[in-house]
Each structure stands twice: as C-alpha cells, then as structure tokens.
Amino acid sequence: MPELPEVEALAGFLRERVVGHVVARVDVLAISALKTYDPPVTSLGGLTVTGATRHGKFLDLDVDGPHLVIHLARAGWLRWRDEIPSRPVRPGGKNPLAMRVHLDDGSGFDLTEPGTKKGLAVYVVRDPADVPGVASLGPDPLDDTFTPGALGAIVEGKRTQIKGLLRDQKVIAGIGNAYSDEVLHVAKMSPFKIAASLTGEDVEILHDAIVTTLRDAVERSRGLEAQDLKGEKKTGLRVHGRTGQKCPICGDTVREVSFADSSLQYCPTCQTGGKPLADRRMSRLLK
C-alpha cells in the first residue's frame, strides 16, 4: 500500500508534469472507484490543474477550484503516460484500469488496481475536507506541529498496542503497515508495547524514529519516476517484508506475526529482548 513517502513523491511528480495543464477529459472505467457525483467528474474537463499536494495517504489535485482526491488503497497505483493511447479502453473484465485522465498536450495518467479486492477511491469535491477520510485525519508527522509533546499527548492513556496506534489514520496521518514496522525497528520498540506505557524517554525516541524514518524515505523517493517508487520503497525497507532474512543492524533473523489480512515483521534482538512474539495464526494451526 502506498504510504506517506510514496504519496508525497507522487504529489511532487505530478506538480512537475500536470500543474499548468488543462484537463481534456476524464474517463471512468471502474464506476465503483468514483465515490462522489457532485460536482460531476465531467466538470473537470476544460479546467487547469493549479496544484498537487498530499493529505496523509490521499493525493490531491487542485483543478482550478474543484479537487480530484485519490486514495490508492492497498493495490492501486498511478501510471504516468507521456502519450495517452488513442484507442479507447473498455471497462470491466480483467482490465485493472479504473480511471484515465487526459491532459491538453496528449499526456496524462492512469489509475490502476489489479486483483479482485477493490479499494481504490476517487473523489471530486469542492474542498478536500469534504472527503470523510481527509476530514478525520490526525496530525501529519512531517508537520512542524508534530512535536514530542504532541506525540506524548497522543499516546497518553491509550491502552492499545503501539503498532496499531501508528497505523490509525485518525491518530497520525500517513503511516501504514510497512513504515510502522520500520519506525518501531528504528526505535527498538516491540510492536505489542502498550502506548500508555511509554515513558517520556520512549516518546522522544519514538518521535525521532517516526520523523527520521519518514523523512529519509521521502528523500530517497524525491525526483523518481512514478514507476520507480514501488521498487525504491521495497529496497529501502529494513524489516518489513523481510521475514527470514538477517536484520541489517544485529544480524538476527527477522520474524513475522500474521493476522487475518496482514502481517508485521520485527527483529527479536533489536525490539523484544530476544524473545519471539506469539504468532496467533500459527498457534491456532498447531492446536
């Protein structure tokens, strides 16, 4: 799933390529991806793109008033085209194309989502805050207001595991499954640690890990083509998605805990005092 660093890079990528161009038309191939009807998506035709930015994991194009807001979900992606094919694309079937945006110079981009489980969401709104997911976002961890004190107020009294808290978009915007694993590895903190149990020192360490991990990932992604961002994310990860491999810090084996629809990765030596965490799914299978 694209998270804050990749969406930030996509916003920068689009600022260079679409701002100042007129939207020629928008083709909607997957009606289920379009979550709004007023303003209609057709109203974007003939308008100029004036900005591209990010809200958490939401991508936002300001089209001279109306906003085209995109959430790529788990499998969605943006594919840039220097030249849009002239042949029309038919909706349905195995085609992963959900939406195509044509610009006045013949370029544009596709929004794609392979697989059967669909989560890609596109909104045309007058204000980004009209998107429920944007309106409910917590603070952005790259904003200057996200201080150790702000993080301390967030975790205070929270009787939930820190891994889940970091992933909650209503608590902190932009961190998903991958970067929460990375942040906790940098902080040398168990993903099962209860948020309310963090000391003042723990909060300082976690805050530094959040900010440095995300800023480093943003810098690595800056200036890359959209097609290269997924590969950069994968190569830059230290523990997430690396089950069975060696921890780059201590050399211990990276382990995994599996859930119904996701998994987390961690290093026992760096994060849990050398003790493996219980994998509830495997425990059930062994009963």
Automatic annotation (TrEMBL):
| Residue span, FPG-type domain | 238-272
**Which segments cross the bilayer?**
none
Q: Which reaction does it catalyse?
A: Hydrolysis of DNA containing ring-opened 7-methylguanine residues, releasing 2,6-diamino-4-hydroxy-5-(N-methyl)formamidopyrimidine
Required cofactor names: Zn(2+)
UniProt GO molecular function: 8-oxo-7,8-dihydroguanine DNA N-glycosylase activity; damaged DNA binding; DNA-(apurinic or apyrimidinic site) endonuclease activity; lyase activity; zinc ion binding
Keywords (A to Z) from UniProt: DNA damage, DNA repair, DNA-binding, Glycosidase, Hydrolase, Lyase, Metal-binding, Multifunctional enzyme, Zinc, Zinc-finger
Provide the Formamidopyrimidine-DNA glycosylase catalytic domain boundaries. Answer: 2-93
Q: Name one GO biological process term.
A: base-excision repair
Q: Which domain of life is it from?
A: Bacteria
Report the sequence similarity comment from the record: Belongs to the FPG family.
Instruction: Please report the name of this protein according to its UniProt entry.
Output: Fpg/Nei family DNA glycosylase
